[in-house]
Specification:
The structure holds two protein chains of two kinds.
Chain A lengths: L5 H7 L6 E2 L9 E6 L3 H10 L7 E9 L9 E9 L4 E9 L5 E3 L9 H11 L2 E3 L31
Parallel strand pairs in A: 2-5, 6-7
Antiparallel strand pairs in A: 1-2, 3-4, 4-5
Chain B lengths: L10 H5 L4 E5 L4 H6 L7 E8 L2 E9 L6 H5 L8 H5 L6 H16 L5 H29 L3 H22 L8 E2 L2 E2 L7 H24 L2 H7 L7 H7 L4 H5 L6 H4 L20 H29 L16 E10 L2 E10 L6 E5 L1 H7 L1 H5 L7 H8 L3 H4 L2
Antiparallel strand pairs in B: 1-2, 2-3, 4-5, 6-7, 7-8
Classes of the chains: A alpha/beta, B alpha+beta.
Chain lengths: ~160, ~400
Amino acid sequence: MSRVEPNSIRARHRDLEVEVAEPARPDDELRIAVPGPHAKALLTRLVSEEETAARRLVDLTVIDRGPGREDGRFEVVYRLHSSTHQAAFRIHAILSAADPSIESATALWPGAAWPEREAFDLFGIHFKGHPDLRRLLLEPGFDGAPLRRDAERAEGRDG
Amino acid sequence: MSVDLESSDSLSARLGFPESAVEVGFSHPGVRHVTTAAGGSASFLVHLDDDRITDLEVDIGFGHRGFEFTCEQGEWLAALPHVSRLGLATGVMAETAYCLAVEALAGLPLPDRAIWGRMLVNELARITDHAARIGALLNAIGLGDGALVAHRMETLGMRALGAATGGAPLDGYVVPGGVRCGLEGVLVEDWPERRAVLEGELAILDRIAVKNPTVVRRLRDVAPLSADDAIGWGVTGPALRAAGAPLDLRRDRPYLAYGALDFDVPVGEHGDGLDRLLVVVEEIRQSLGMVDQCHKLLTSLGPGELRAAASETLHLAVGEGVASVEASTGELGFLLASDGEGPPRRVRCRAPSFYNAQALPAMLVGDRLDDLLPTVALLHIVGPECDR
């Protein structure tokens, strides 16, 4: 089993302002934080370069760090897997509260279509260039983004 | 009306009918039956030319329980009953993934009995769930006697699972830091007997269904998906392996003690319905062997510690914990974000059915309307997994 060294990621993608966390165990998922506007470029490299060859998008989701965080409120999280290196990567693309938008990953993986629609539906993240960005789970007329931390919640329910 | 019989157009076109669209689900009897755990919570809008599928829209979200939202409201342990309910037999697989992610955040070591006990129930659940999907498939193509055998096998699997966990389904067997009970109850003595019965049912199923020419004709070249397309759409599990990609987390990124187990990863060639069925049947055989190995080791370990002592009160680190298991339908994973104290910041479930359902149009356009339900049955699209 081969691995991808955090230092090689730091060196290769320094121009994209990546921050690579030191994994606790050698075969842990490698956590890479990147500013939202650079996320697409980083993903494209991680997929196409032989050193990483992370061809499989495992999952795509959003973490809301809370309404108090203006600069880094939303993180769009991409989990990737490389069968070639048996390595796993987790890319946290940092978005501000003021502009929760990011380029769509559907050009890299058609399978990003549904999770991006879901993130749009439940977190109100806008994916630029998505071929069919509309609600996936909720009804078309629904107002709001229910998984956001400051979403309005029904009376009498846990807040 | 004159009909041009020489034309290569479809019969609908020759008779002057426009293309039609048919709504299948979400409480269509066929759909209800094939999405067993869902009670039918997916809907399909099928665009047709004759009975040839020209376009397919998959609609999910009818169950809408707010699963992730609910998990983020309470304490970490309070999420477990919701996690179990992602599937019936497969509940233990979801519990395993969730607990592995919590344990990664809490730095909890697992006792041996818990590691091997979890693998045992995961493989029993795989046998049960695979039997269920074969039953749903055979129902969908109208082979009732085969379906009866498969459902009998599912029941036997569920009973064995109950004997191991104290009462399947939805047993809450897997808990952070360990498992809730040992095998000293029933399974230690009677696993060999249960295994023989399961094997007998599988042999019958093999003879009357898997090798049945009708089944072979109904599935060969139906709903094909190449390995590249499968990876692109996020398809995992038997459907991906049937397409020829030998990807199995139990072997590739071993969790628990799967690295110590002896098993094969069956792989198909064509990625069609028949290959999916053959992979599923072979996986049942492999899982029977894996249960044997876990049972043998657990018997030799005897009674003892089942749960890490430190697991009574959870102290979670700030950060994220991730874990994925190879569930019967594919990769089932959790991404948990923790603020240290208080309820989870984020509970995200990577559900295999969600991604597999997304690939249905890529598989089925060009096939016949009659191929829709067998394909959904064999992929085993589970409604609660698709919802959030």
